[in-house]
Amino acid sequence: MSETFITDPTLRGFSACGCGCAKQQLNLSDYLSDVPGNNEISDLVEVQFKNTRKGYYRNDNHLDLVKGDIVAVEASPGHDIGTVTLTGSLVPLQMKKAQIKGTADVKRIYRKARPADIDKWEEARGRENGTMIQSRQIAKDLQLNMKIGDVEYQGDCNKAIFYYIADARVDFRRLIKVLADTFHVRIEMRQIGARQEAGRIGGIGPCGRELCCSTWVKNFQTVSTGAARTQDISPNPQKLAGQCGKLKCCLNFELDIYNEAHKVLPERNIALETAEGTYYHFKTDILSGRITYSTDKRMAANLVTLSAERAWEVIRMNREGQHPEELDTEAKPAPKKPIDLAEQDDLTRFDKTQKRKKKSNARRSSPRKEQNARAEAGRAPQHEAAAASARRRQNEPRSEQKGGTNSVGRGAQQNDHVQP
Fold first, then answer.
1. Which of 234-238, 268-272, 344-348 has the lowest mean pLDDT?
2. What is the pTM of this model?
3. Does residue 132 lie within any of the structural domains?
4. Are the beta carbons of 365 and 310 closer than 8 angstroms?
């Protein structure tokens, strides 16, 4: 799938593939871009190519260039295609930082890239990965002790730069001839270090962020294991090594702060003499200035933590032949009363779970009960009226009905009932 290159400078925070990761090294923030006439102060322009490669060019044609424009620049031979990353008065400062003296040898910017230039540029970039894999196989067949880490084609496909890593001197004259016959371009070999290779490839560090060498670090300084010891970092080679196999560059980031903090701390081989006994150094919290001492040289026993000022005070007293009663004179916080969780909680608290469920069921059924209660309340007056009428009928005297048949019949029934 071909990549779509973004030429809009307002979208320069996104990569060419549209995701949040950066395809190129982070650039200097042009904090003078809003100053009127900033671009007219200097005709020098910073142009970035693949990954970390940058160059500085003269804008002799006075083109209206802004950050993010794709331009065609002078190359040897032909021309190259790159992206403008900085203009104005900050470019000479960047050239000075890169130790580029004078502008006589600075090449020119030809024009803004045309659609045909961009199409050929995309075609050149599409050939880079296959060329790198094939060149590695060629170097292996020639039995050269080297590793080709990256390949970069020039914008007009007339030249290719092969970045390689080698521990010793390599005679690659035969390799150049084979590569030129295979790819039909001019070959340039550039040796880089392991850190530069990691910067060109990119990746995610153990901190979860992009590698510093692929985003903003340009000048690589020597990193020693002493930096890890100064910061009390465990000397584990697997954790201290970066993607390049060398010590991580970030070990030097806070080294100056730790060196300043060490100046106010006593040496670790100094023992403190007190009336209670001798205390030996156990550990140090460098940034907070707190030191922990133990009564045993090899293990943690009767640990006492005190400030650096108190440690220097005890050392001065020992030099004068005095021994303090206690090592730590700071007021200690009152110990908290122990809490017995078994006494706080009732052992039978789980026996009421079933009752709680019944209550919850009662709460769930309460709307239905209220509805039934309202219905019963509506029928109550009717029941009361019926009961009252029944009581009145029972209390009234029975009247004899007219007609002999009924009276005779009732008397006969009574007589039959009285007779034994």
1. 344-348
2. 0.61
3. yes
4. no
